[in-house]
């Protein structure tokens, strides 16, 4: 079993913000793979389904970004999952819009959602970093992540989310490098 976690903030006011690109990713998975509807479970919304024969759970924490680890820990504890079975999809300001990188473990890179998850389950989970770009002025970081994508970036983000969904079975099967290679093909 694998736990796919999309990071974001609950509520309609955050729905299309850069910080919610993780929620956008897992919403795509639910549609594409005919998962159950999200239902309240613990400290988040949970959907379940099967991807290429592998049972998968999708979690959208309802704890707000900075406390995401609480929801991830609750799901891991309830389903007896190890950090190695967790894949987190999140925004990354250090990457250009639509660029995707992955890593297992390591630091949180200043991302408060990852810091929270690290403090609750440790760092040994897979992180799928989805680029949302960076503001020119560091003082604008909060407004940037809580702002919506401009029109020209929306198509780029939708395209990358579609590709992530297309190749997600590779990731679920543990073929991380092949997943990343397919994402970056033209």
Task: Break the fold down into its secondary structure elements and pairings.
Layout: E1 2-6, H1 21-32, E2 39-41, E3 44-51, E4 54-61, H2 68-79, E5 86-92, E6 100-104, H3 112-121, E7 126-131, H4 141-145, H5 151-172, H6 176-184
Strand content: 15-25%
CA radius of gyration is 15 Å
Ends distance: 31 Å
Largest sheet: 7 strands, mixed
Describe the strand arrangement of the main beta sheet, using strand numbers.
2-3-4-1-5-7-6
Annotation field: number of helices: 6
| Mean pLDDT over the residues | 95
State the name of the first-level CATH class.
Alpha Beta
CATH architecture: 3-Layer(aba) Sandwich
- Dominant shape: globular
Low-pLDDT stretches: none
Give the tally of β-strands: 7
Instruction: Please bin the fraction of helical residues.
Output: 25-40%
Structural class: alpha/beta
CATH topology: Rossmann fold
How many domains, in number, for the residues? Answer: 1
Name the CATH superfamily assignment: Peptidyl-tRNA hydrolase
What string, H for helix and E for strand, traces the elements in order?
EHEEEHEEHEHHH
Describe this protein's structure.
β2 and β3 (44-51) form a beta hairpin. The chain has a seven-stranded mixed beta sheet with strand order 2-3-4-1-5-7-6, with helices on both faces. The chain is globular and about 45 Å long. Helices cover 38% and strands 23% of the residues. It is an alpha/beta fold. It has helices at 21-32, 68-79, 112-121, 141-145, 151-172, 176-184, and strands spanning 2-6, 39-41, 44-51, 54-61, 86-92, 100-104, 126-131. It contains six helices and seven strands; from the N terminus they run βαβββαββαβααα. The chain has one domain (2-184): Peptidyl-tRNA hydrolase (Rossmann fold). The longest helix has 22 residues, at 151-172.
């Amino acid at each position: 079993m694998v736990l796919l976690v999309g990071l974001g903030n609950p509520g309609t006011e955050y729905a299309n913000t850069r910080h919610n690109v993780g929620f956008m990713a897992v919403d795509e998975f639910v549609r594409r793979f005919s998962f159950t509807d999200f239902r309240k479970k613990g400290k988040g919304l949970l959907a379940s389904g099967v991807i290429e024969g592998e049972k998968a759970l999708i979690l959208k924490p309802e704890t707000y970004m900075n406390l995401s680890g609480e929801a991830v820990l609750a799901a891991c504890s309830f389903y007896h999952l190890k950090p190695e079975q967790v894949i987190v999809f999140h925004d990354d300001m250090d990457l250009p819009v639509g660029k995707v990188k992955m890593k297992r473990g390591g630091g949180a890179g200043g991302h408060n959602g990852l810091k929270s998850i690290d403090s609750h389950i440790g760092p040994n989970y897979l992180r799928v970093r989805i680029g949302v770009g960076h503001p020119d002025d560091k003082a604008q970081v909060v407004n940037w992540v809580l702002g919506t994508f401009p029109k020209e970036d929306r198509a780029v983000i939708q395209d990358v989310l579609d590709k992530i969904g297309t190749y997600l079975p590779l990731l679920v099967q543990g073929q991380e490098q092949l997943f990343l290679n397919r994402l970056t093909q033209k």
